[in-house]
Amino acid sequence: MTETRDITLDVNGKRHALSVEPRKNLADALRDDCGLTGTHVGCEHGVCGACTVLVDGRAVRSCLMFAVQAEGTAIETVEGLASEDGELHPLQQAFWDKHGLQCGFCTPGFLMLAVGALRENPEMTDVEIRELVSSNLCRCTGYQNILTAVRAAADVMRAGTNG
Amino acid sequence: MSAIGRSIRRIEDRALLTGNGRFAADLNREHQLHMRVVRSPVAFGRLVEVDASDAADVPGVEAIWTAADIAELPQIDFRMTKITGMEPYRQWCLAKDYVRYVGEPVAVVFANSPYAAEDAAELVFCDIDEVDAHLEATAEPVAFMPETMPGLLTEPAVLHKSCGDLDAAFAEAAEVVELELKVGRHTGVPLETRGALAVHDAATDTVTMYGAAKVPHYNRGAIAAMLGLAIDRVHLSEGHVGGGFGIRGELYPEDVLTCHAARRLGRPVKWIEDRKEHLMAANHSRDQVYRMRAAIAPDGFLLGLDVTFITDQGAYVRTHGATVSDLSAALLPGPYVIPAYRVAGHIRLTNKTPAGTYRAPGRYESTFARERLMDAIAARVGIDRLEVRRRNLIPESRIPFDRGMDTLGTGVVYDSGRYHDLLARLEAHVGWEELAASIAERRAAGEMVGLGLGYFIEKSGLGPEDMVRMRVAPDGGIRIITGAASVGQGIETAMAQICADSLGVDTARIAIVHGQTSLIEKGMGAFASRVTVMTGSAIKIASEALIEAALDIGAKLFQVDRASVAYKAGEVRVASSDRAMSLAQLASAWAEQGGLAAEGTFRSDHMTYPYGIHLAQVRIDPGTCDVLVERYTVAYDIGRVINPMLVEGQIVGAVAQGLGGALYENFEYDEAGQPLATSFADYLMPTALEVPEVFTLVREDAPSPINPLGVKGAGEGGITAVGAAIASAVDDAAGRPGMVTRLPITPDRLHAWLA
Ligand code: FES
Ligand code: FES
């Protein structure tokens, strides 16, 4: 068998001890070894963004990063967004309310992309939101409702922090 | 308040939002093997030998198969086609004698991990005597497999349809307009690639394939037949599906191979395709050339139309057979009278990926062709582009309109339509006069801006029938089992709304179970915008039967006669009394006697035809020759709207896909037949920066008279006329009527046209 390495990944605040081949990408490690299949793989070459997760708060395409590189970082995935009691994150709620998903395959990637961006800049303009959303692909929605959902969530989140 | 017509949120969303979806790649079974396909690296050649000796040495490899190892598997059969003579062109599960496209499965490797399977697959060596690739469908047909099937040419079929007296039309014509038009090669490309997990139960010799989509019942029968199993020994189970758009319904070689391997190797077999494979092995679509001759009266009325078109169906004829060509031929005349029409549709094969259907198959292409012709007639006769359409649209007085031809085995009869009315409504909605004036003003100031439109007719609700079963649980929950399938279009919500409406209960109580062949014996799946019409109607019929059953049970329990009980909003009540029982109470009280349940079947011999208009406003950047879509409007009459939010979502998503085919997406090949678009860096799908805001005008002015709900399918009309409308708008922006003759309108093409 090919050589493996023992690593520990911190995902959504939980520690996962894994033994992975050095060439295994983070998306596969999250899905196969941590059992977190909410992170999806749509292209494996860094274009679609379905595999987007947050690594130390920044949006990263997990298909383009090796699992071994993620050791010592804090990883966040879609499974960590809703609170323990099941209350949806404002972005999840907005995607639901605004019909921001159809097949839902791209959704985890868009959610993580937007969570990261809104944390960094809660004051995003519509132009900035469109720019942001253009970094991932969705084949079902035509993006309109994704844009509306991110806008709505941004407003809710800002109101939450200011008030 | 009626549950129909309300924008309620989808019941299917919560799992998808929280990362709890169950897509094919998310499924695993203990001890599973991973399958990897070895694909042909060349476009055309004689397959001499496959050497897997090095690959077999890779640790973790359990088996490697070539065609010789699966000699018992027949070719993959057609699903629905009446055309005969195409059998020799069907694909084998693994290439035999010849390879005919880059990406064709030649061998399969089974290993303990996906990484090992991929490593081993790279070591399988294919010895192929290459032959010159045949890549032009418009060129004379050549030999399909020169040495093994001499004399068999790459033109499996030519379809002919006609109506009216064409010679008389041309004799009477004041003008003859001729056009040649081409639609490029593009396809659905859902964000989830293909995949499957097949599990064999040795005790009962039953194979279950998870991850099936769109037409589980049909594919189950086909797989059982190929594996030589009784139909009840194969089950298909659908989980979440990451988009359909046409490519999913295909029965692919890989589907059959996973099932066969699970049975033969005695372990579960998982197969997940990568994106590169998807772009060269899942069905392509479109790729048609139209040659049209039109006989015109002096006022622009189209007297007769003579059309020859060629469809490049790639390397083999897959399960859809002649479907795309058949639909193109029958629906090309669209919403116009056209008293005489003759069409010949050539199905041709080349050394490219096999092609099948893509959302609005045959209509996207033929609408582009027909609407280009309408613009050309307007230019020739010197009338406005709206006026030429007004003069040719079928008047309300002639509805229902029988085209005198058939498609997919049913006569083309437009069931309802108010075509002039919708055009007038769209003009009012967008303020056509002012809009045109503002565009003229900008053009005068030097901008290259323009407007374009395309009128279309869609079809939906293909029969023959759909059946559902409905049961009320003692807790009041209502479970509906349907053989329909979901490809992410929100059918659970829409179907629950129809049931809730008929029964007068809350949608939250209703659960829809779909895509499970083990739970219901019949089902047509989801294709051709059929679910709302067929399954929705069956649900309405079942709901009505359930009310009757509730009344029967209620009368017995209250010991009154049947005429003195009435049903309302989830309750059976005895007339002029306060005695009442809820559905839940009836179901529990009657549990011993079989409970409260009903069945509904809806049959239909005819399709129903929604229709609409696309209006595009574009600007050409003279520096880069990019086309920027500034604004897009779709007017669409779908008879009756179940959930406006879902309908709008379907329209907007489909427009985005249509823009991809009109402006960006194209499967290019080099002269050796190597595909050049095998990643998302080369196959360019629209992002949020390319898709403009889409406005919708959804109407219910022409309900369908041929189903109990009045509905028509809404899933495809958002894409149908995009190519047509964008081409018309680009012509207008360039001030050159008739300039755009092919799609996609890429910057280099536009640059050449403008030069
Ligand atoms: S899967 Fe990572 S970007 Fe597409
Ligand atoms: S919802 Fe299907 S890809 Fe975005």
Automatic annotation (TrEMBL), chain A:
InterPro entries: 2Fe-2S-bd (IPR002888), 2Fe-2S-bd_dom_sf (IPR036884), 2Fe-2S_ferredoxin-like_sf (IPR036010), 2Fe-2S_ferredoxin-type (IPR001041), 2Fe2S_fd_BS (IPR006058), Beta-grasp_dom_sf (IPR012675), Diverse_Oxidoreductases (IPR051452). One of its GO terms (molecular function) is oxidoreductase activity. Keywords: 2Fe-2S, Iron, Iron-sulfur, Metal-binding, Oxidoreductase. Gene3D superfamilies: 3.10.20.30, [2Fe-2S]-binding domain. Residues 5-81 form the 2Fe-2S ferredoxin-type domain. It holds the Pfam family Fer2_2. PANTHER family: OXIDOREDUCTASE WITH IRON-SULFUR SUBUNIT. This is Carbon-monoxide dehydrogenase small subunit. It comes from Bauldia litoralis.
TrEMBL record, chain B:
Residues 18-132 form the Aldehyde oxidase/xanthine dehydrogenase a/b hammerhead domain. InterPro entries: Ald_Oxase/Xan_DH_a/b, Ald_Oxase/Xan_DH_a/b_sf, Ald_Oxase/xanthine_DH-like, AldOxase/xan_DH_MoCoBD1, AldOxase/xan_DH_MoCoBD2, AldOxase/xan_DH_Mopterin-bd_sf. Pfam families: Ald_Xan_dh_C (PF01315), MoCoBD_1 (PF02738), MoCoBD_2 (PF20256). SUPFAM superfamilies: CO dehydrogenase molybdoprotein N-domain-like, Molybdenum cofactor-binding domain. SMART domains: Ald_Xan_dh_C (SM01008). Keywords: Molybdenum, Oxidoreductase. GO terms for molecular function: iron ion binding; oxidoreductase activity. It comes from the Bacteria. This is Xanthine dehydrogenase, molybdenum binding subunit apoprotein.
